[in-house]
């Protein structure tokens, strides 16, 4: 793993909400800290209501984590484009985030410990 990335089990139970709906809750979330960036919570895919997410064509590359695949959250009233991402085949040093999703937190999406 890159020396500046740490992954640990996130304390407690975490929820993610978007468009007024709870997309998921997990007591098995992971916290990834990369350098000076704020911690990012990664939810096990099995704890997320994937029916609300559509994979998009967007992808990005991180030299430490690999290629990220993006998802939009689709609700009855709106589509929140590219607000979630996942490393489908992460690099060996961060393999723990495989099958997990992270979310951009903004006014439309909230990630919080409950």
Shape: globular
The rounded distance between the terminal residues' Cα atoms is: 30 Å
Q: How many structural units, i.e. domains? A: 1
Q: Return the CATH class.
A: Mainly Beta
Helix content: under 10%
How many runs of DSSP E, i.e. beta strands?
10
User: What is the CATH superfamily?
Assistant: Domain of unknown function (DUF427)
The H-and-E topology, N to C, reads as EEEEEEEEEE
**Largest sheet at a glance?**
7 strands, antiparallel
The number of helical segments is: 0
CATH arch. level architecture: Beta Complex
Organism: Roseobacter insulae
Protein name: DUF427 domain-containing protein
InterPro entries: DUF427
Topology readout:
Elements: E1 5-9, E2 14-18, E3 21-26, E4 30-34, E5 40-44, E6 53-62, E7 66-74, E8 79-87, E9 100-103, E10 109-113
Antiparallel strand pairs: 1-4, 2-3, 2-10, 4-5, 5-9, 6-7, 7-8, 8-9
Offer a few descriptive terms.
single chain, about 110 residues, mainly beta, 7-stranded antiparallel beta sheet, 3-stranded antiparallel beta sheet, about 0% helix, globular
Structure commentary:
This is DUF427 domain-containing protein. This protein has about 110 residues and is mainly β. It has no helices and 10 strands. It has strands at about 5-10, 15-20, 20-25, 30-35, 40-45, 55-60, 65-75, 80-85, 100-105, 110-114. The strands form 2 sheets. It has a 7-stranded antiparallel sheet with strand order 1-4-5-9-8-7-6, with no helix packed on it. The protein has a 3-stranded antiparallel sheet with strand order 3-2-10, with no helix packed on it. A hairpin with a 2-residue loop joins strand 2 (about 15-20) and strand 3 (about 20-25). The radius of gyration is 13 Å and the shape is globular.
